[in-house]
Fold this protein.
Amino acid sequence: MIDADEFARQAGLVFGDERLLRRALTHRSYLNEHSEALEDNERLEFLGDAVLDFMSGAWLYKRFPEKNEGDLTRLRSALVWTPQLAAFAGEVKLGDALLLGKGEEASGGRQRPVLLCGAFEALIGALYLDRGLKAVEELMEPRFESAIASILGDESLLDARSLLQIWAQAELGETPRYRTVEAHGPDHAREFVVEVTVGGELRGRGVGRSKQAAAQRAASEALAKVNQRG
């Protein structure tokens, strides 16, 4: 384990308010065991999620002027989903600096993707509050550029149904279910409406000229909602 100052030095980060950095590194399990810790990182995680969602969308909009809304949504989902944010956390060795409770530490929390993802979002939230959007851009844009090359080379990461299935199984232990709820129009211009549910909850609805296209749009809508919820 390394302390907050050493982490910041190794990661090339500068914080004016070191309390923000320490809060970003404080998991709720640590707070439960240390009365001197005043706040965990969950509020910062909420903020960082919103900052990353906006920044990745703006970066993709400028980076790929030829892509449509659906393509941009899938790319954004691939840039900010749990495994990718956990990978970004690994690049800066964030796990080594986290303040964890003994139980979380013993159960391998420093390597758990969901925990690393949340901590990375908290770090982004803290950096945004301390130094503004420009500092976050300097940290993230090179990482987005590197990650997008891998994403574009892996078709499964551009497929909304594949992304939704990976998310649903990792986060909820469920498999998405697709159901055609409407079909209308003449045979030569048939349109289908497909809904996708996860764990019995309606997650998305899509319309397309084929069931497959409608299902992809339903999955894209579901992923957009996942990103909004954080």
